[in-house]
Please model this.
Amino acid sequence: MTVGSAVRASQPPSTPAPPAPVQKAEARARATNRKRRLPLLPALVFVIVVTQLPFVATLVISFMEWNALYPDRRGFAGFANYVEVFSDARLRSSVFTTVLLTATVVVVSLVLGLGLALLLDRPFRGRALVRTMLIAPFLVVPVAAALLWKHALLNPSYGLVNGTLNWVWGLFGSNDPPQVVWLTQFPLLSVEASLIWQWTPFMMLILLAGLQSRPLDVVEAARMDGATSWQIFRFITFPHLRRYLELGGLLGSIYVVQNFDAVFTLTSGALGTANVPYSIYQTFFNARDYGLASATGVVAVVGTIVIATFALRVVSSLFQEENR
Amino acid sequence: MSTSISVPTSRDPGDAGVAPAPRTLRKRRSPSTERRNPLVGLGAWVVGLFFASPVLWMVLTSFHSETDAATNPPSVAAGLTLDGYRTFFGATSGANPWPPLINSLTASLVSTALVILLALPAAYALSIKPVRKWTDVLFFLLSTKMLPIVAGLLPLYLFALNTGSLDQIWVLIVLYTSMNLPIAVWMMRSFLAEVPVEMLEAAALDGAGLVTTLRRVVAPVAMPGIAATALICFIFSWNELLLAQTLTGVVAGTAPVFLTSFVTSQGLFLAQVCAAATVISLPVLAAGFAAQDKLVQGLSLGAVK
Model:
């Protein structure tokens, strides 16, 4: 149950043969472990079968020439699909879009979330209600949120955004307000805005929890010593929040990298908004090129492993800290 | 100055495990140590309303008539009507949203029940009576969550196609269970780890068996956490689109799949879209607000309390 046991568990087993009583104790420990493992097995087997086997199949199909529209030409393709992944301009641009989309959404949500968390960390009337209002965007079904943005907010003729611009300009007696066709003129920005709106509350929640776990005595002592609010933020709060920023950023990246709903609903991947998940979906569902879709999937998995390694390291360090 | 309780949480990142602070003392600090500033409250309210405004607008528009919904500048104070909801529930269009709603409910509830059933014993084996290398198991489970689902989509589709299980709800149930299981194990492990070791030892000394320990010691401490885990798994299943869109069609389509029929504009239909989005988001909003206190701990996989 302690961190010590975790560390011990990760060490290689000792090599020299132990004396008889130790052997007996070890046999007992092994028996205990076998008994303890039982409740774990169903979940573990289930996860391995349902999540790992499909990836093995994807890996196999990625080396095949297989297009459902030409069923008689199925066979081994070697690395041909991979060559196509890296030479296809559409797929390359989808990688670029994914990186841009993920980075923008995560960074902007983190900055906004930090601002909101700092605000909500202060006492004021109705704080619980404001917190609830701020969580609401995260709790709208993603497809519903995307539809809301597409039709109710960004529609060029009667969306709320253009409507508000029209109303504000009208207040100043102008009848020539800017009316932007958001999804055509700024397609990627529109997708990003809707995702930032949904992910800022997530970041705020994590950072607020971080703020509220700040060591109170240290802040108090700093204030006694005459530190300014900025100094307290810069030298106490921010270093303490760093891990929470990392955690929020990495968990956010894992979800936003995989985003399908917003791209599918808002722009259907048009005008340079197709990210990798959407492109794979298109290759598989519309072009029916199973080999190419699988190869793209494998490349996406390899790319994700890079992020995941960092993510696991951050979660692991927080985990070690929290576990006694 | 208010009563400031000294909370021993000042642990350096490096000394984890060296001087472990008692977890029971990790309490929220009292906010009253800072002076109240009326501007902070005002600013927070303005920002809060700004962020909530699209949701409020969605709900308001869902109660407007189609002609009032499609005006520029927007008619905020237009009369309210239930027409949007009537249209959504098929009064005029004939499209019936009940089958997809029931499909979503079935897939989410059954998969959540399965998740809890599988995750609870697993979490027990990773916290209260831990197996050797239990951290390795946890991190393996987490790593499965990071692989993009879309990369396994094709084999899942081909499997469903060849076994005749395309467009059947149980396929989604199985997949949603596997999708949420790693998260649930992580969350529940962190909730079970909150059961004090002293209480478990005391129960063992008093001769309590496994069932009694679980019922009388573990359950009271971990129950709110288990409930929050279930609510979050329900939300993730209810929201899922990619798998449902690929693996279901006519019969087993879920609510998000039903929503995609509104992707292309169909004349004056804004009130109807907003009614649809509101109805389908309602269960998630309810579940999320119910789990509010444990939402952070759940979403951060128990890393943040």
